[in-house]
Amino acid sequence: MEFAGAPVEGVGEGGAAGDVLDKIFNNIMKSNSIFTNRDALRNDYIPDRILFRDDEIAQLGQMLAPILRGNKPSNIFLYGKTGTGKTVVAKYVMRKLGERISQLKLNTKFIYVNARLASTQYKVLVELGSQLDISIPFTGLSLSEASSRIFDKLRRDGVNVVLIFDEIDYIVKNYDDNVLYELTRANNELLGGNFVSIVGISNDLKFKEYLDPRVLSSLSEEEIVFPPYTVDELEAILRDRVKMAFRPGVVSEAALKLCASLAAAEHGDARRAVDLLRVAGELAEREGSEEVSPDHVTRASKSIERDRTYEVVRSLPLHAKLILAAALSVPDETNTGRLYSNYALMAKRLGIEPLTQRRISGILSELDVLGIINAPVVSSGRFGRSKRIRLAVPRDAVARALREDELISSIL
Ligand SMILES: Nc1ncnc2c1ncn2[C@@H]1O[C@H](COP(=O)(O)OP(=O)(O)OP(=O)(O)O)[C@@H](O)[C@H]1O
Ligand SMILES: [Mg+2]
Predict the structure, then answer these.
(1) The pLDDT value given to residue 161
(2) Which residues, chain by chain, have CB under 5 Å from ion ligand 2?
(3) Which atom in ligand 1 lies closest to the alpha carbon of residue 273?
(4) Does the pLDDT at position 3 exceed 60?
(5) Is the pLDDT of residue 85 over 50?
């Protein structure tokens, strides 16, 4: 995450720099910081109260409850758009069930693994192993050998596992479903009466298409769908968070409502709502302001948008980046044909074979889905269907991300 807000001017200019630093440090040291508990705004914070998710919590609790009698629960699949509370609900239920499990002294363990953070299929198993005190070497084993090693140990020790496998689509989209295949084949024979159940979480439903039918049917024995939050729900969630994180009266009513409505426009995303509140609070604090105002929220929103654009563009594949470079080279709006010829020119200048128009159309649709460009189809006379294309995000953030690419920076 980038340091939000205006650059600190005057740093490195002797006296002025000292003044600036004094101001920064004084603001931080003020005993009456606007925050009372900053951690309550962190992304991984699990609030004591989860609002508007009673049904999902009850369903998940019901589905997992058999573990309290030592029985295997179904594999479960949770999905819904980003920021709809999947992770927080899964961790909450895991914590509550974990308390019961330790009261009952059951030999069942909850393990949470985030596929995106683990980054490879093999590391998922290393992580799973390490949380179970099973050492898996960092290299040298196949996925199947590594999972067998885990299963052997579970069978010997008579341990059951519920694996919360978050952001599972990351692995499937970047690799294949082999690790899921290995994990879902854990059955009686391999585990001698013990079980490994999986709670898979994804914000992308399309990823199911990448799954082998056997893995899919095994993984989604049960499903829970998380709907987006409404603006009123986001407001209530934020109100709770404001009480936990800020001194009373610091966050103005108008600022809170603006956070909720901006996040509601972003498909009812509670993460965006909480992020806005945090970044707006940081801006206010940095300026020594006693109040978080709508203006802080507006600026927070721009800064988050820039950061998001930068992160997304930076991790795009080469040809997608080249298309964006081509889009930057024209003033504002263009069409598919012109964009394609710009792109092809740039590719040739870099000594890269351009992809076909058809492939590029595919990439444009993906960029549209990501919200990076706007490309509604318009019909344009004798050329048939064509798209009018416009960048949907701040140009400077796109340019900054592209300049980081060694190859592309040479033609920008
Ligand atoms: N019902 C809720 N009550 C209180 N806070 C919530 C609620 N739902 C989400 N949040 C907060 O919103 C943020 C995002 O929620 P969460 O991480 O669970 O989203 P997610 O559905 O897992 O999204 P992603 O698919 O992007 O991982 C977290 O800070 C979480 O604490
Ligand atoms: Mg999540």
Answers:
(1) 95
(2) 87
(3) 12
(4) no
(5) yes
Is the CB–ligand 1 distance for residue 51 below 6 Å? yes
Mean pLDDT value across residues 106-122:
93
Interhelix angle for 253-265 vs 231-245, to 10°? 130
Please answer whether residues 277 and 34 qualify as being in contact, where contact means their C-beta atoms are separated by less than 8 angstroms. no
Protein residue with least CA distance to atom 29, ligand 1: 43
If you ran DSSP here, which 8-state letter would residue 211 be given? S
* The pLDDT value given to residue 31: 57
Q: CB of 86 closer than 6 A to ligand 1?
A: yes
Task: Kindly give the number of the ligand 1 atom that is closest to the alpha carbon of 50.
Answer: 3
Domains annotated on the chain, with CATH: 31-45+229-312 (1.10.8.60), 54-226 (3.40.50.300), 316-409 (1.10.10.10)
How many Å lie between the centroid of ligand 2 and the Cα of residue 87?
4
Instruction: Say if CB 242 and CB 251 are below 8 A apart.
Output: yes
Ligand 1 centroid – CA 233 distance (Å): 12
At 153-211, the pLDDT tens digits run 999 999 999 999 999 998 888 788 889 998 988 776 778 889 999 999 999 878 888 88
Backbone angles phi, psi at 71, to 5 degrees: -100, 155
The crossing angle, in degrees rounded to 10, of helices 270-286 and 15-29 is: 120
Task: Average the pLDDT over 402-411 and give the result.
Answer: 92
